[in-house]
Amino acid sequence: MSEIKVDTLTGKTTANIVTITAGASQTMDLIPSVVKIYVNFNGSSNTVLDSINTSSVTDNSTGQYTYNYSNNMSSSSYGFSNTAGGSSGTTGDDSYGSTGQAGNSAGTLSSSIKGRYKHNNGTNYDASNASILVVGDLA
Amino acid sequence: MALGKIKADTLEHSTAGSLDTQYIVEGSAKAWTNFVGTGTAAINRSSNSSGLTDNGTGDYTVSFTTSLVDANFSFAMAANQTSTGTGMVTGDSGHQTTLTAGSIRWGFTGSSSNAVTDVATGSVMVHGDLA
Q1: Exposed e or buried b for every residue in B12-37, given b needs 16+ CB within 10 A?
Q2: Number of domains chain A is built from
Q3: Does residue A91 form part of some domain?
Q4: Is residue B7 in some structural domain?
Q5: Per the CB < 8 Å rule, is B9 touching A100?
Q6: Continuous segment of H or E residues that includes residue A38
Q7: Phi-psi region of B88 (alpha: psi -120 to 50; beta: other; left: phi over 0)
Q8: For chain A, does the N or the C end have fewer beta carbons within 10 angstroms?
């Protein structure tokens, strides 16, 4: 088994392009495809359970949070997902995640992303496990 | 000068631990797309996405430049809605998510209205194996 010990991978021809073989013969650029930010956040206790590249989480209101990045993305256009687990025993247990917030459409910025979580009855709730994933290029 | 190429099973960082390269290869997103979903839908930025089709209100298809090995891949969508802050979910009666090796089609619905709706900014991410 081969092993490389290294702290940094840098493209030889172009610094931010590192190609990997990701199929029988297909290759792809690794850099924009690696998750740059993830957060597992408990909105009830305002606790970050686990994260990478996240400086803080701001509790804006019930079920509405801003996840702030340690290192910014290169722009506000990146891949993201935003999901949450429901809260047990609550009417409308299904949960929905969106990155828009009432009165504020700027849900995705290069420096942060806003998450909002609602029951299927339309009310906001503090999610016990809210999760954010971001892929793309860092600044 | 020819490009450099390294074949290895493991990468080890000096302090952060090591990782089998299998996880890098299999765990990297194989396609992602950030797009405008209102008006003339258009891709803002993407990786391995050849195009976006606006099939109707809240109903989109993203095609992959390089196909996945099959239709059994993992996916995640999310949306940035405008001032209403409507929750977004995927899958709906008549708007089931459809996966093929070369594309993904899905619908965004609002949690309160349960009706398909265009989104200000949409995102889809795909994990799996390339063909």
Answers
A1: eeeeeeeeebeebbeebbbbbbbbbb
A2: 1
A3: yes
A4: no
A5: no
A6: strand A35-42
A7: beta
A8: N
Low-confidence ranges of chain A (pLDDT < 70): 85-106, 120-122
Which 34-93 residues of chain A touch chain B by CB within 8 A? 34-35, 75, 77-83
Q: Which of B24, B28, B34 sits opposite A78 (nearest CB)?
A: B34
Using 70 as the pLDDT threshold, list the residues of chain B that sit under it.
1-2, 82-95, 110-114
Size of interface A-B (CB pairs under 8 A): 168
Domain that holds residue B62: 19-127
Asked whether residue B115 is domain-assigned, the answer is: yes
Considering its fold, how many domains does chain B have in total? Answer: 1
pLDDT tens, position by position, B85-123? 455 665 555 667 888 999 999 888 765 566 778 888 899
Choose the mutation target among A10, A16, A77, A93 for the interface with B, i.e. most B CBs under 10 Å: A77
Tell whether B14 is covered by a domain: no
**Which residues constitute the domain of residue A39?**
34-135
Q: How far B53 CA sits from the closest chain A CA (Å)?
A: 17
Q: Which residues of B touch A102 (CB under 8 A)?
A: 83-85
Residue B31 lies in a domain: yes
> In whole angstroms, what is the distance from residue B127 CA to residue A118 CA?
26
Cα–Cα dist B22/B18, whole Å: 12
ipTM of the complex: 0.85
Does residue A8 sit within a domain? no
Residue of A nearest to B15 (CA): A7
